[in-house]
Amino acid sequence: QVQLAESGGDSVQPGGSLRLSCVLSGYKYPTYCMAWFRQSPGKHREAVASTDGSGGESYARWVKGRFAISRDNSKEVFYLQMNNLRPEDTATYHCAYLSGVWGGCLDRDYEYWGHGTQVTVSS
Q1: What is the DSSP letter of 108?
Q2: Distances from the Cα of 43 to the Cαs of 23, 84, 92, 120, in angstroms?
Q3: Which of 47, 64, 95, 119 is buried most deeply by CB count within 10 Å?
Q4: 29 within 8 A of 14, measured Cβ to Cβ
Q5: Across-strand partners of 50?
Q6: In the predicted model, is pLDDT for residue 49 greater than 90?
Q7: How far is the C-alpha of 38 from the C-alpha of 44, rounded, in Å?
Q8: 10 Å Cβ neighbour count for 65?
């Protein structure tokens, strides 16, 4: 069993930055995919960024260099650094984990999900 807990969401002005955290607890698998998703009211959930046990990273095309996914293996925490935030980035951000796989992480169906953290970008 795997548990995920996000934090770091806040209200910021356009152009601001936030770093989201996702703490992973429970059984750890040597091969996995981990991803950040977001969903705003009235819209479908969309993948933002992903990584896997080999350290590979993938990003949605619209990220365009503004976001970066990373991990701290010693603390078993994944991060999403978000820069140059825009009002359209307003959403609830969730981290997700899928065990026993690697590669193609942005397009997979995930097994474990966190409850989400709210990001609001507004002037």
Answers
A1: S
A2: 26, 22, 11, 15
A3: 95
A4: no
A5: 35, 58
A6: yes
A7: 9
A8: 8
Torsion angles phi and psi, residue 122, rounded to 5: -155, 145
Rounded Cα–Cα distance for residues 66 and 17 (Å): 9
Structure tokens at 64: 């365009």
32 membership: H or E segment, kind and range: strand 32-39
Residue entry with tokens 């095309």: 61
Strands 117-121, 11-12: pairing kind: parallel
Structure-token match 């065990």, residue found: 99
CB within 8 A of 69, min separation 6: which ones? Answer: 36, 49, 50, 51, 57, 59, 78, 79, 80, 81
- What pLDDT score does 30 carry? 81
pLDDT in tens, 84-122: 999 999 999 999 999 988 889 999 999 999 999 999 999
Q: Is the dihedral of CA 57, 61, 63, 66 positive or negative?
A: positive
Predicted local distance difference test score (pLDDT) of residue 1:
83
